[in-house]
Design brief:
This protein is about 35% helix and about 25% strand. It contains nine helices and ten strands. The chain has a six-stranded mixed β-sheet with strand order 6-7-8-3-9-10, with helices on both faces. Strands 2-1-4-5 form a four-stranded antiparallel β-sheet, covered by helices on one side. Helix 3 packs parallel to helix 5. The protein binds adenosine-5'-diphosphate. The site of adenosine-5'-diphosphate (ADP) has 10 residues, from helix 1.
Length: about 240
């Protein structure tokens, strides 16, 4: 008997429309548990829309999404939505200190010790901002606070929308090390990035989306080193202009 666990997500026959416009079309996609899937593609390709569907914030117009082998219920019940955490591109901060924002994540796990936030802040180079009002920070700082808050929850699934956009190289390295830690804990990660190098460094497999369609998907090394599709080669070479 097979003991292979079901994938964290399995999408079948997905089409998502806004009005008359189809913005996402994915015939089939499986995201194995504990793996990192990179989603690359130009702006407007449907990458963030895919994350919203995986978080259950929207229901696909057509098709099914199974989570751990069972159809995703709508509305998504709290125990399931807590297991899946998105770090949005422009995260919402509570109008409180940076530390309190991270503590919010820890409280979900029943940890009330205020000092517990500090190791997370330290790792992301935010300790000097612990008492600052989170809403007053720069975009790059807010993204890192949101990542610390998400990681504090220790979700089974982490959905990351451009986590290293707006960051200088030292902070890109911090964020990537943080993501690697989550990988080593077995977290399933979906990493949306327009930075193909980031997908190459972090993702086990990668999907190239263009205009809502899957151009190519496969193990990251194969997709980057020997793409099967001419459009993949051209996108990776920076030759596709949108
Ligand atoms: P990406 O993340 O790859 O930049 P998005 O998923 O944000 O792309 O958007 C895909 C397409 O869907 C874009 O053309 C965008 O304008 C459109 N879109 C996204 N959200 C909505 C919405 N709520 N209503 C209408 N159109 C939307």
């Amino acid at each position: 008997m097979s003991t292979t666990p079901p994938p964290a997500f399995e999408l079948a026959g997905i089409r998502h429309r806004y009005g008359a416009r189809t913005v996402l079309s994915i015939p089939h996609l499986a995201i194995p548990r504990g793996e990192t899937l990179g989603i690359i593609g130009p702006s407007g390709a449907g990458k963030s829309t895919l994350l919203r569907l995986l978080q259950g914030l929207e229901r696909p117009t057509e098709g099914t999404i199974d989570v751990d082998g069972a159809p995703m219920p709508h509305p998504v019940p709290l125990p399931l939505s807590r297991r899946i955490t998105t770090v949005f591109q422009r995260p919402l901060m509570l109008d409180r200190s940076v530390r309190d924002n991270v503590l919010f994540g820890l409280r979900v796990r029943g940890i009330k010790d205020r000092a517990a936030a500090d190791p997370l802040l330290e790792r992301l180079g935010l300790v000097h901002l612990a008492n600052a009002r989170a809403r007053h920070l720069s975009g790059g700082e807010i993204q890192r606070v949101a990542l610390a808050r998400a990681m504090a929850i220790e979700p089974d699934v982490l959905l990351l929308d451009e986590p290293a956009a707006n960051l200088d190289p030292a902070n890109v390295a911090r964020v990537e090390a943080f993501i690697r830690d989550a990988q080593s804990r077995g977290t399933t990660i979906v990493l949306v990035t327009h930075n193909t190098h980031e997908a190459r460094r972090l993702a086990h497999s990668t999907v190239l989306l263009i205009e809502g369609g899957v151009v190519e998907t496969g193990p990251t090394a194969a997709l980057f080193e020997s793409p099967a599709e001419e459009r993949t080669r051209a996108f990776l070479a920076g030759e596709l202009v949108y």
